[in-house]
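Backbones bend. We report:
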Amino acid sequence: MSYPFALPFELTNQSITDWLKQLNFSDVLLVSNEIYHVLSVLKKEQAAIDTAALRQVIMRLTPVVMYLSGFLEQAMLKSAQQRKIPQMSIRILRHLSFLQLCLAKRTEQQDQRVLHLNYALQILGVAFKVSVLSYERPSAVLWQYMSECYTLASVDTLLDIPVEKPLADFQSLPTINLALKRLLLFWVANPYSFSQQDIQTFFVFCTLNSHLVKLVNPNLVVESVFCWDYSQNDCLQMVYSKPVKLPEKCVLFHANDLLHSEQKKSLFIAESERFFLRLSNYNALVGNTNFSLAKTYVITHGFEQLTAFFARHVHNNEVLRLNTPLPNDLNFTNLELVQDGMKKKPMIEHISPEDIWGGAELKKEKVAVKFAAMKLMQTAQAYFYGAETIQVNLVEGDVFVAYDASLKPVLGVVRRADYGQRDRLQQSVVQMLIGHVSVLLQSHLVVPKSALLLSHKDTFELFLEPGQYSVGTILKFDQVDVTLERLLELSPKFMRYAVSVGE
């Protein structure tokens, strides 16, 4: 059968074999370009290709791509500044996973659907690893393909059916479920905080221990679980702690078996302790706060709130006393008695309940800064605290600024957020970050944006609202230009980058 598009071979087994033999793997980038061109044509024209012919070429190319991805990974690690290498690798893997997914949708045979969905998810796992190795945010398309794979496998009850005679590259994860669990386990760890060598080690660890991840029925009441929202309304679905209200389409999971397994001792990476604290939802830290003396802070949270707070209440890295609540003004016992709907007349140059809790009706052009009270209790982990907050709704991954009697603003991140029996009191685990914190503005944009700059000695970190950014991008702020050097953390509420600051 002839096709109205150009490929460097005919869609026959012999022609594909002849083309593969002439590829010169000593020039990895040249081979990558040729493979990418072929996959691009196949992706674009797949609807016009006979299913049997498409399957033949994709199954011939799959082991070649996996072999090539290993070479590209090594080249990427040797040439850290060469960003084209990981980008090429991710594009190739992305196209191949798409084509495997297409084959799964087009075939009627159950064993073939299982195989193609399993391969698609395993290829996506490698693409996510390459994204993390290059400290880039993964493409939203990767999450979309992952969602489609899970949806199709779940609807057709294919999750736990093993692949018959899988390729050598895919033998470790014979079911769709295991391939999915590896990806979830890898992502929940925030592997961006690891070194490149540790990322590679951790990916292997996730492959070997994915069977210890357990999926949970969303209809059951289970604590300390993580949630993956696979709704396709938004193509970037994060993995995060169980929200107060579950999304319509979600997978809940935990790795408690891994926490209690001897296998966790085989993970020799710098951030392994932090990873296991994360898996346990920081339960061990909460248990160590019973005999600590509480320290009271006043907090405000959210990018819009923080921008307004720094503009009005901070000068020369110190919180102004004028019209700003102080720690000794806030008493938990009294504040719990304040009624939600209570209205009081604002006092000039003084703090009223409306100023603290945001009930005052301010002018439209101004953002009402909402303050809350927080008590911090020391834990066994440095810079991590058990916290109680009142009159605030914190969620995991939320960023906030706190200050106490010293009146120095301190940046913090919510690592766990729970709700106590009392409606007004919320318990959480927070991480306080060292360094001078300031707000940067981009007032020249049609929709002005802000970012938080954290500086400590000679290092700089930038907190941005979630968006599409690439490593190497130069962001121009009113105060200074910054260059994004590597992604350090990705949460539903912010993106955290290591940056360099222009003169």
